[in-house]
Amino acid sequence: MRIDVLTLFPEMLEGVFGASILGKARDKGLVQLNAVNFRDYANNKHNTVDDYPYGGGGGMVLKAEPIFSAVEDLPQEEGVRPRVILMCPQGEPFRQAKAEELSQERHLVFICGHYEGYDERIREHLVTDELSIGDYVLTGGELPAMVVIDSVVRLLPGVLGNESSAVTDSFSTGLLEYPHYTRPVEFRGWEVPEVLMSGHHARIESWRREQSLLRTLARRPELLEQIDLTLKERQMLEALRQGEQST
């Protein structure tokens, strides 16, 4: 996978691109991570990439020309059309399912803006996706882009040491992930659940599924409406709901 990030502050990305899982993935050649300063594509003597909005109003708006020119100048593999992703608060809320979808692509391009907003022609005629990481506003799109990139790259084959880790993550199954324990067995009087040390894989999987359901019910009950549950699981959850209502 190739990932290009269009930004006015490429130095913000280098620490993330070179560290931890992303750094190792890049070192192993599993992903190409590139920061492109789109100010280099400004078509005026002052290298400005923004201007006042038509119709008046506060703030400055990113111009279309440098963004289009930067994207069109990117190396492109023959037959591969990049997904061009605009990071903005108005975009589609980013979910694990979107990360899984994007991880199947060969080339991703992220556009990180600053100032008041983007010339609307960027949205209409260049981008393929608009994404938001939450209902709040940041000073620029670099931090959201890093979040999305980290979420996507960790799903690429060979990036994680244990390939099953991404499969059982919270939201990958539609449920929150079950609790984890490690050594020691007893810590300050708190013990690891006996079932996890039983060696009985079927019982362990059953316990983990039940714990995921219970945790999801307690913390994100709306997710349960989107999950295919067995009759036994539905009865268990309904009994728990009834118990909560009666207390």
Question: Summed up, what is this model?
Answer:
This protein is 36% helix and 17% strand.
Keywords:
247 residues, alpha/beta, Alpha/beta knot, Trp Operon Repressor, Chain A, 2 domains, 5-stranded parallel β-sheet, 9 helices, 36% helix, 17% strand, elongated
By CATH's scheme, which homologous superfamily of the largest domain applies? SPOUT methyltransferase, trefoil knot domain
- Briefly note the structural class of the backbone: alpha/beta
Major sheet:
5 strands, parallel
When the domains are counted, the total is 2
Q: State the name of the first-level CATH class of the largest domain.
A: Alpha Beta
Weakly predicted, low-confidence segments: none
The global form is elongated
Give the termini distance in whole angstroms. Answer: 53 Å
Main sheet strand line-up: 2-1-6-5-8
Overall residue-averaged pLDDT value: 93
- The helix content, as a percent range, equals 25-40%
The number of helices is 9
